[in-house]
Design brief:
Helices cover 32% and strands 24% of the residues. By secondary structure, the protein is α+β, with helices and mostly antiparallel strands. The strands form 5 sheets. It has an 8-stranded antiparallel sheet with strand order 16-13-15-14-18-19-17-20, with helices on both faces. Strands 6-7-11-9-10 form a 5-stranded antiparallel sheet. A 3-stranded parallel sheet has the order 3-5-4, covered by helices on one side. A hairpin with a 6-residue loop joins strand 1 and strand 2. It is globular. The protein binds flavin-adenine dinucleotide.
Amino acid sequence: MVHGQGGVKFQNWAKTYGSSPELYFQPTSVEEIREILDMARQRDKRVKVVGGGHSPSDIACTDDFMIQMGKMNRVLKVDKEKQQVTVEGGIFLSDLNVELSKHGLALANLGAVSEVAAAGVIGTGTHNTGIRHGILPTQVVALTLLTASGEILECSESVNADIFQAARLHLGCLGVVLTVTFQCVPQFHLHEVAFPSTLTEVLDHLEDHLKRSQYFRFLWFPHSENVSVIYQDPTNKLPSSSASWVWDYAVGYYLLEFLLWISTFMPSLVCWINRFFFWLLFSSRVENVAISYKIFNYECRFKQHVQDWAIPIEKTKEALLELKAALENNPKVVAHYPVEVRFAQGDEIWLSPCFQRDSCYINIIMYRPYGKNVPRLNYWLTYEGIMKKHGGRPHWAKAHSCTRKDFEKMYPAFPKFCSIREKLDPTGIFLNTYLEKVFY
Ligand SMILES: Cc1cc2nc3c(=O)[nH]c(=O)nc-3n(C[C@H](O)[C@H](O)[C@H](O)COP(=O)(O)OP(=O)(O)OC[C@H]3O[C@@H](n4cnc5c(N)ncnc54)[C@H](O)[C@@H]3O)c2cc1C
């Protein structure tokens, strides 16, 4: 019989949200998950499935039953001809990246970290950058769901096609994602070039930058014009490594945390800290070559609050200039660096922030130096107001203030998703507080 542990405290990676599940399970088989669902039904409990627990919101929290999928993490099949891999939902992308490279394959795009589960990253619509690349769920060609009734549903473009369009970005509310099949590409290396620029230059020549680099993104240092442009492109060059560069960054970030902590007593310092670190770490050209996943992933050193909305790509310039003007006009609103600007291709996934439109993601951040919360309400409200005005849709993993009414306006296919959810989970066993705000 499956064993649930009491007294476990769940906390997300940033330690910004947490909960105390009554029972915490790490099942090793579908039969065990069915047992947990039966037990939950008998005791009138809800169930939350988690992967890497990286979501910077309460989307993965519950005080009822929590299922952590870390022990269902096998690679089930590698189809070299189709370049597809089928994995269990709990596998971390860090393990998958290594497995794939043994077969000469890779995922075409990845987010900033890989200590996240296959089912978790697709569940919240994780994205990276590249205007000819969709968000990570667009790489999914099939998946298997264990629904609330204990039934196993296979879904793909040709089998249960409607459920597939919902489940590729599932929010954890349609059932337990048992397996995911990803379309891969041949393994590749990336050449990364980072160089300094200005916000005006980048926004005036956005089209050129998007054409010039397959995985183009940029970091804007708020309270200034400073920008770091980052191009990443496939290359045949041999891997290089710059030890002193890595060392500079490590030392720089210790100093940054200390200075940000000081600035919690003198917020006006933040604009100088942003400028100083641009000068220290981002004002010269840096190049690097490595296997794709080592370039896509980068170290997020310390804990932070974030927001990340996707707006139609044509609104990029207007929205960023409005954010810049709002910060200039309200000196009391303080913004840590960077504002990270990334791009993604439109898709047909019902709850994708890029549904039917090429998009620009604007990610804002407030660090928590030594775990201390820095006031962010004014910055958050200013940013959300601008994002909403430009037709933005929030990242599902990251905290936002939207409710069902907002999502009904943002997502044309929202009613279709709701009707599938209600059919697959009529009693709401997979809901939690976050999801209640989305669906009720
Ligand atoms: C340091 C850091 C860097 C990040 N970088 C990026 C980035 O570059 N781009 C980006 O878009 N996001 C980024 N994120 C956000 C992150 O990619 C998402 O939060 C992602 O969902 C995390 O995956 P996870 O496995 O930790 O999911 P969790 O947080 O554990 O869960 C997310 C959702 O998936 C559900 N879920 C998980 N597994 C299953 C399953 N087997 N069956 C059903 N439901 C399941 C959960 O119930 C929950 O609703 C970052 C987060 C951090 C902390």
